[in-house]
Structure formats: structure tokens, C-alpha cells
Predict the 3D structure of the following.
Amino acid sequence: MSIQVTPDLNQVGVVSSVDTELLSLYQTQSIAVQEPELVSLLQAIRDRAAETVQQSKIPTTRDEEWRFTDLSALKSVNFQAASSSKPNLAALESLLLPEARSRLVFVNGVYAPDLSAVTLPDGIIASNLDGLPPAYHSQIKKYLAQLPGAQEVFTALNTAAIADVAIVWIPKNIVVETPIHLLFISTASNTPIVSQPRCLVVAESNSSVTLIEDYFNQMTNLEAEETEAEVGEAVYFTNAVTEIWLAENAQVNHTRIERDSPEAFHIGKTAIAQARDSRYTCTAITLGAKLSRHNLEIFQTGEQTQTILNGLTKISGNQLADTHSTLALNHPYGTSLQQHKCIVGDRAHAVFNGKIFVPKPAQQTDAAQLNRNLLLSPKARVDTKPQLEITADNVKCAHGATVSQLDDDEVFYLQSRGLNATDARNLLVNAFAAEIINQIPIPSLQQTLLKTINL
Amino acid sequence: MSATVKTLVNQPYKYGFVTDIEADTIPRGLSEDVIRLISAKKEEPEFMLEFRLKAFRQWQKMTEPAWSNVKYPPINYQDIIYYSAPKKKPKLNSLEEVDPTLLETFEKLGIPLSEQKRLSNVAVDAIFDSVSVATTFKEKLAEEGVIFCSISEALREYPELVQKYLGSVVPIADNYFAALNSAVFSDGSFVYVPKNTKCPMELSTYFRINSGDTGQFERTLIVAEEGSYVSYLEGCTAPMYDTNQLHAAVVELVALDNAEIKYSTVQNWYAGDENGKGGIYNFVTKRGLCQGVNSKISWTQVETGSAITWKYPSCVLVGDNSVGEFYSVALTNNMQQADTGTKMVHVGKNTRSTIVSKGISAGRSSNSYRGLVKVSPNAKGARNYSQCDSMLIGDNAHANTFPYIQVQNNTARVEHEASTSKIGEEQLFYFSQRGISAEDAVSMMISGFCKDVFNQLPMEFAVEADRLLSLKLEGSVG
């Protein structure tokens, strides 16, 4: 399977001068797999990525792709490798989704088998690398770290430090009835730690699956009362990469939730390859982290694909949340529908950049993109750039962007119906967010998130 | 794409002739001496020379920007002739003394300068290579107190006015090409409209490049005093040469309290042949400053020529309640490249801006809209509406949009929408059903597509622009 790379994806952060400390900066974990065949495979992948890292540099605001997101705060922290502390199952209770009967839990990037539970019919794989049946060992190298955009510095850093992989593999013609929950927990400690989780999802032809990828911080959310004082200390860096391969006519419904601690750094990459007739839906919710960045990259490898991207960012305080999406359509008859919303309070700063490439072969493409931003305070800030690059002439492409505050008339209308000002505002903000949250196929998760928005 | 559409786009460039005229040309290359020479030739006051030298020193420290979506081979700045002027008598007192060859040239371009044939109610400043050759209706304008002359004349007659405003909107170190222009600009137009005056006629400057190796670096400065109004239009053509020529102009507009400036451009520089050989590099910095309260600056541009168009006419809305507008039609055909758009910087309270941009790309051309809407923290109640539509003719053309929206005030309302489409088979079928040929149908649809922009042009030019567009597209439809 070959994928055409859209021109400027790999350039970011690659410079001539060499940042030799980069590798050691975000401590490499040793490979956590036993199987010798896999160890040598991982080692080869790591070595290749390490070479890339050695020619790269952490981008600055002078790089167009990072113009509004200043990483100097991230660079100034001296991160340590993750410690081995583990939460107990009881502490996790509130996080578990009753709908999802299977879950994989990773703590600080390390697989926690005692916390995980997998109840899936035979043939469907949800495990870490060690649990992967030997039949798949030779196949894995066709997929792992093979998507374009792997040269991007943070993706390369993650690849260079691959210790284990969360793998979901759906064989041909299988429809997975219950959602699969991938839970990535960071446990805060006094020293800032770095974790670099990695997911690989392969949906073979005619299969269907629902996934929830969940980034969570244990300290702040699980035992909030006892650790209130420590909340400010929970500095850590999550550098996550998820690759999803959809074969012909496969269907993946993917929900990604980032609710890291308000002092954390989060950089996440979601890279998708979509073969002919496949359908992919992503609902990405960004709530946490002091600085977060989500790179969403979709590569079309066959015609007539359908892509639905929903995004919601709700931030306040001094948070910065950045979403960069790239949709590279290289084949005809693709449709895409993207809706990204930001709710920005206090002094927070939301960034959105949505690129859509429609080169000449992608005739009859129908791509629509909408970015809506709600500013809740005078100091809030939004930078948005919806970007279209089109060569095919027989296409329908449209994009829109709006920025505004809550409409006074709407607030007044609700007040005239007897709601107080706070309730009226909450109701409106909630409705703004609900449009995205309601796209999540898990009712219990919808409820939890709507409650969070109400705060 | 059927044959009719194709024939519609490929109309030959009819302004491509060269006027054979004796010219006063300085040697190629750029150095402090060249700048001193230009300044001396133009008999400029001392401050101007300093301004130029300062800009030149800045320029030497700067590097050529590379972020745009246009591609061109490196420009050798030492291979350009920075000053070329038709040889003339020491001083022109009236139009009768203008070289008849020049008058003929402008006649041929459809810009009659001689008394009897003038366009009624439009005052024209004609610029040929590096110098202004004639300005019409000067006396009539002077009666109202309006100053309309070439910038060299303004430097001699009204140095204090020029000194006050020159470089105030586009500082010399603003960007690479603006710095170059500040160092070497040769001529341009100067307009000053006094307090509470409505300029009685349309003002217009016509730029003509004639010589083959010169760059054209003109500088336009328009100052509208409190409560005044002026409408200004520029047009441009150049002969066909195989080599590329650099045109790096700077336009500065200043609108004081309650003043309004309307600036329209119909740009038809030579675009190069269908293989992209030759043509003008149109790298222009245009910026308007709405300095006073309730002031308004409106840009309208119809960009059909140039091998490369790279410009962003901008408005800095400083005065409270000031208004910025940008209406643009950019047409690219063959190998043309355009990276154009606008910047609206909201600084004052209740400032409003409107952006309407229409891009049409045919052939193998590339047409990008790049725009910035910035609302600074103090711009309470700022309002922006942007609309960029692209139309693609043929499947080798590119249409890109890069809108930057930066908002730092929650009371702002910013809306942006963009769409890309083509002339559909159904639409063409509908027309042919009604007995209208494909060619007419396409030209009708394009003028409908551009109507929002053409409506903003002064009457005479709207007709002209519509015609120009259908000529340019001749051969690409069907």
C-alpha cells in the first residue's frame, strides 16, 4: 500500500542545525516486549526514527505550523522517564464506561494488564504487543510507523521511543458490537515525567469498530479531594501517536478525549489511512493540559471515502489548545465534513488550522469545513486558519469560520423566561458544545462530558 | 473543457507594443551612488536622499521573503535598470510640449491626454517608465484646493506635506520590496485633498512600462484631510518582453477624521506568454491608514495581468468607527500566479471591515487568496465579514485559500466563508437550452460571479473591467 505524501507535511521542525540533546531530553524507555522477533523489529523502527530526530529540532513560533503555539515552556522542563506507580482498579472505577466491555489501560505509557479487561469474540485483537498472536508478527511492520507525516519531530520522538504498542486488529468482515476503550493514565509525581503512548489500529475490509481513546490524569480527577494541593504540581508531558488503517469498506468510529492536568503538556498525533469506500469518524474533545496540540492527518488511499471530523475544545485559565488537521484527498468521489468548535474562557488561547488538499485526481470531491469559536472573556484569544488548496475543477469545497461572544439577545431571551444570567449563559454554552458531544456514540461519556462543560 | 471555453481565455495581449523613444537611462545595478544619482536627477530635497539611503541600508540587511505560494527564479537586483525616462525638454509647461510620440502611446492605450479628447471628468496622471509625463485637469483641481501631481513635483513644491506622510503608513523597513522601493522609487502620484472637500472628479494614474530592462518602482501617496472624499484609480500595461520585469510599488493612503478614500486598480501588466515566458513580477505593498474617527478606506482591485501578482492591499483601522473594505477579482490564466488578498487590522473601537474576493483560475495558473483579519485587544465591537469564492476553469488550475483570523477581543464578531466551484455542465446546458452560446453563457456567469466587485468600481471602469475579463478569458471556456 503506497500513500502519496502531500507536499509540506514532513518539513516541520526539520532544520540543518542538529539538536543532539533532543533524544535524551525525552528519555527513551527500553523495549518492553519479550518476543525476540518483535524486539528486533521495534529496534529497527526506533533506530530509523532516531536518525530523523537527530536531524530535527523542536519547532519555534518562526515555523509556520507552530506560529501561535510557543513550545519554549515545554523545552524548559527537565523531564524524567515515567515512574512505575500504579493506581488500583477501584480508583479507576469512575473512568470506566459501562458500554465498553473491553479496555486496555496504559499507565504512564506502560501497559497495565491487571487493570485491563478484554472480552471480545475470537479473532478480534485488542492487546499490547506481547499479546499479539505470532501470526500477526510479520504483518505489523507493514503498518507500524508507516504513515506519512512520521518525519514530524514529535512523531519521530515517539517512534524513537516505542516501548510497547496498544494494538486493535479487526479481521475481515467482522463487526465489533461493543466499543473498545483505550485508557491512557498519567500519574502525577513530584518530578515531571514524560510518557509516549502509541496505538495501532487496523480495520480489515468490511469490518467495523468503535474506539475511545482517552487521556487522563489520575491525580487531578480521581482523588480530587485528597490531592487538591498537589494539582499544581502535576507537570508531565504526553506525546501520543495513534495510527489507524482502514481497509476497503471498513468503518471506524473514533472518539479521542484529552483531559490531562491543567499543568500538563500534551502533543498528540492521529494519522489515518483510508482505503476505498471506508468510513471514518473522529470526535476529538480537548479539555485539559496547559499546552495541547492535536495533529489530525487523514490520507485517502482509495476512492469514495467518507470522513467526518468533529472537534470540540473547551479551555480556560491560561490554557492553550491547538488543533491542526490535514485532509489529503488524492482520489475521486471522497466526501468530508469537518466541524470544529472552540469555547475559550479567561486568558486561554485556542488555535485551529484546518488544511484540505484536493489535487487533480480527486474529482467529484465534496469537502466542507466549519470552524466556530466562542469567546467567553475579554482576554480570550483565537487564531484560526481554514485552508483550502484545490486543483481539481469538478469539486465542491466550502469552508467557514466565525468568532464571536454569546449573543446578548439570546441571553436576554432566556432571562425573560426566568433563568438567571449564569444559567442562561451556561445553557447557551452547553448547547454550543452539545452539537459536537452528541456525536459521541457512548451515552455515558456524553453525560460525563456535558457535565464538565457546565462548570 | 470544450474548445469554446479554451478559445475564450486565450486572447492575445493587445498592449504589448513598444514605443520607440529616446530614453535617458542610467546604468544597470544598485548602489548608494545610483541612489544619489536618482535623487540628483529628480532634484530632490536633502531629506529625501537621506530617506532613500536609510531605506537602502535597511534593504541590504534584509532577505527576500520566501513564504508565499508563488515560485520564481531568483531576481538579480544588480541587473535591473533603476531609472529610465524619456528624454525631454528641461521643463514642461503645458501638454503641447509633451513629446507627441508619448501622447500617441497613451492614445493607443486608450488614455487620451490631449485637451480635446480627454476623458470627461477624470483627471489622469500618466507615468511612463520612471517619470510622470503629464497630469491633466490640474488647474481645475487646484481651484478646489486639491493637489494632484507626480510625487517628484510634490517633493519640489510641497516638501513639508510629503515629508510628514511619506513612510508613515508603510515604514521603510516594512518588508523587502517596500524597502527597495523606498530606496529607488522614481515617480508616482501624490494626492492631497484639503479639509471638507469632495474631490470634484475621479483621479487616475496610468502606469506604462516601456523599456525592457527597467524595474518600475513607483510610489503613491494619498492624503485625505478631515471630512474629505477622493476616488482614485490606477491602470497599468507593459510591452511584451521575453524577460521578466520587476514592479515593486508602494501605495500609502492616509484618511483623517470622517474622510473617505476609494482606491481602485485595474491591473493589466503583460502576463507572459502561455508557457510562462516573460511578464511582470508585480510585488506591491499597498496599505491604508484610517487614522481618524469615522474614516473609510475602500480598495477595489481587478487583477488580470502580471506573471506573478503578490500583494495585499491592507487597512489599518485605528480611528474609532472606521471602515475598511476590500473588493477583489483576480484572474489568472496560462502560467500566471497570484498570491493576493488583504489585511484588516482592527485597532479602534467599533471598526468594521468587509472582504469580498473572487478568484478565477484557468489554464495552468495558480490563484491564492491569503488574508488576515486581526482584532487587537482594544478593538471593542469590531466586525468583519469575509467572503472568498474561487472558480476553476480546467483541471490544471489551482485555487487556494489561506485566511488567517486572529481575534483577541471577545466583543468582536468575525465571519469568514469560502467556496470553490466550477461552471457546471448543468448551468451551461440551461443557457444553451435558452439559445445562448457557451461562450456568452460563460462570460455571463463570470460577470455574475464578479458583480459584487465590479459594482464597486467607478462606472466607466466597471464596463472596462467587465470587457477586460471576458477578453482575458476568451478561449478558455467550453
User: Anything to note?
Assistant: Residues 1-8 of chain B have pLDDT under 50 and may be disordered. Chain B has twelve helices and 24 strands. The interface with chain A takes residues 67, 375, 377, 390, 392-422 of chain B (CB under 8 Å).
